[in-house]
């Protein structure tokens, strides 16, 4: 496990430098503001599954008591969920941060849901008649059960979709619009006029050599003025400050976005989309309803958070955090008691850190000393040799036991067991200016430990080296690599180096 200390050293040879001047607390809040949280895909999919499970209950009222068996209803429910999952009816919206895109409506699902339920009820009736001819479903009962099941399924799924669309309108996902100025401005204005797509443009990424083209004379802009981002530093800062997940590329004359822009935004963890390009790719065409107000769109690169890998990582985090919290419960109690006896009330130390996508969260640690004020806590990076550090605090920091409460952060979803160590907003802003790739560390959840830490890059070590290790870990992530890092971290606890 690691410590909270960091350094602004660019290399190992330049570790000791003068701390930066403190800044007012107001600036800390602006450096990495809380982004609006769009509706998550997991709860949406879970709500649809729950709707499909509950929809079978009204159908049971159309069956006779002997036909109304729990086994039959359970088999129907499992089959419905399995077929819907195979058909992709529980997948998130087409755009990564467009949680309620207008094409994801109930009307698109009606034919598929009706056909599957018809097939499953006919199959269930046939099996029931084969096993118990005296319990065979009459045509009227079969039709009534199917109708009730379909009506309840559509009503419940419709309620879930409606809730999702309202959430997306109220909490849109931040996105960057990339392309030539006139076309990018038009797309940004369109998304501003149609909030039902759940996209909030926060900046325009245009070529650095392209002149700024104002709107025609006498015509008021249709969208509030957006910052024009022409340098990689501007783009990285916008991604962190706004929690950007998606970049919408406006199709140019040749239909191909600039490779350097795609690489830059993908480096920062954004899913990249081509808007207005050809809808047919490799012989396949997108569904008719999949569009942004008439503009077709398709994924250029897979979203970095999509797929089973993220689910497997989260499962490892939850299982690991629960097991470690249970196993370490006696140690946690002893540490808490020692801190309470040595330092008085206030066992836990809470501090704002920057996590995935620039989102702020409250990190937990055992208190090792009391900072003079909030400014010191936010802007002083190392307290390893502070004279206020008592015996208990020094021991907790040397053994990294002060980090144990962060297992609760992992269980809450603020952090992962393995990932880049989170930093305070003040230093995130500073390091992002000093090191071009620092902002790209926020493509993944912050970690309790990481590849940099198991290579000795902890405490007062080079930020440039740690940044390089963190991005290498993200670019080559695997579940097996996470397990190896956890094992190496556990081994390092028996030879603590301190902070």
From TrEMBL:
Question: Region labeled Disordered — which residues?
Answer: 1-35
Mainly localized where? membrane
Q: Where is the composition biased (Basic residues)?
A: 24-35
Which GO cellular component terms are attached?
Answer: membrane
| Topology versus the membrane | Multi-pass membrane protein
Domain Bacterial sugar transferase stretches:
313-494
Give the Enzyme Commission number: 2.7.8.31
Q: Which UniProt keywords apply?
A: Membrane, Transferase, Transmembrane, Transmembrane helix
Q: What Pfam families does UniProt report for this protein, alphabetically? A: Bac_transf (PF02397)
Mind telling me which residue stretches traverse the membrane in this protein?
110-130, 136-156, 318-339
What are the subcellular locations of this protein?
Membrane
> What GO terms are given for molecular function?
undecaprenyl-phosphate glucose phosphotransferase activity
Ranges annotated as biased composition (Low complexity)? 1-18
Which EC main class describes this enzyme?
A: transferase
Question: InterPro entries under this entry?
Answer: Bact_transf, EPS_sugar_tfrase
What the entry lists under PANTHER family is as follows: COLANIC BIOSYNTHESIS UDP-GLUCOSE LIPID CARRIER TRANSFERASE, UNDECAPRENYL-PHOSPHATE N-ACETYLGALACTOSAMINYL 1-PHOSPHATE TRANSFERASE-RELATED
Similarity comment: Belongs to the bacterial sugar transferase family.
Q: Please report the name of this protein according to its UniProt entry.
A: UDP-glucose:undecaprenyl-phosphate glucose-1-phosphate transferase
> Gene behind this chain?
wcaJ
């Amino acid at each position: 496990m690691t410590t909270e200390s960091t350094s602004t050293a660019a290399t190992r040879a330049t570790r000791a430098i003068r701390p930066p001047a403190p800044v007012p607390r107001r600036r800390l809040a602006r450096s990495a503001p809380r982004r609006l949280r769009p509706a998550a895909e997991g709860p949406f999919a879970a709500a649809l599954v729950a709707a499909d499970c509950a929809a079978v209950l009204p159908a049971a009222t159309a069956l006779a008591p002997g036909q109304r068996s729990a086994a039959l209803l359970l088999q129907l429910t499992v089959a419905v969920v399995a077929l819907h999952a195979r058909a992709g009816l529980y997948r998130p919206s087409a755009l990564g941060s467009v949680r309620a895109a207008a094409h994801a409506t109930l009307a698109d699902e009606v034919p598929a849901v009706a056909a599957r339920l018809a097939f499953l009820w006919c199959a269930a009736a046939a099996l029931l008649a084969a096993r118990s001819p005296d319990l065979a479903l009459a045509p009227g009962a079969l039709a009534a059960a199917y109708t009730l099941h379909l009506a309840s399924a559509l009503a419940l799924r419709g309620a879930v979709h409606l809730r999702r669309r309202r959430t997306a309108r109220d909490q849109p996902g931040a996105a960057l619009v990339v392309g030539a100025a006139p076309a990018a401005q038009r797309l940004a204005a369109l998304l501003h006029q149609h909030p039902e797509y759940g996209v909030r443009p926060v900046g325009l990424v245009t070529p650095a050599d392209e002149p700024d083209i104002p709107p025609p004379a006498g015509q008021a802009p249709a969208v509030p003025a957006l910052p024009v981002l022409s340098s990689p530093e501007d783009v990285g800062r916008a991604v962190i400050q706004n929690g950007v997940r998606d970049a919408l590329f406006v199709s140019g004359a040749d239909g191909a976005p600039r490779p350097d822009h795609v690489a830059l935004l993908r480096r920062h963890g954004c899913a990249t989309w081509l808007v207005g390009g050809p809808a047919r790719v490799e012989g396949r065409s997108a569904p008719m309803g999949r569009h942004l107000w008439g503009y077709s769109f398709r994924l250029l690169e897979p979203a970095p958070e999509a797929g089973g890998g993220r689910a497997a990582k989260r499962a490892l985090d939850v299982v690991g955090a629960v097991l470690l919290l249970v196993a370490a419960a006696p140690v946690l109690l002893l540490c808490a008691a020692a801190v309470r006896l040595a330092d008085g009330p206030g066992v836990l130390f809470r501090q704002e850190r920057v996590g995935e996508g620039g989102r702020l969260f409250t990190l937990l640690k055992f208190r090792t000393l009391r900072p003079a004020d909030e400014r010191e806590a936010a802007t002083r990076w190392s307290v390893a040799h502070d004279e206020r550090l008592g015996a208990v605090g020094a021991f907790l920091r040397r053994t990294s036991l002060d980090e144990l409460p962060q297992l609760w952060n992992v269980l809450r979803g603020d952090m992962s067991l393995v990932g880049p160590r989170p930093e305070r907003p003040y230093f995130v802003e500073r390091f992002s200016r000093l090191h071009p790739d620092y902002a790209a560390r926020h493509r993944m959840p912050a970690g309790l430990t990481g590849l940099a830490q198991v290579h000795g890059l902890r405490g007062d070590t080079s930020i440039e080296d740690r940044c390089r290790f963190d991005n290498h870990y993200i670019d080559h992530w695997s579940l097996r690599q996470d397990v190896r890092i956890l094992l190496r971290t556990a081994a390092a606890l028996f030879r603590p180096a301190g902070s």
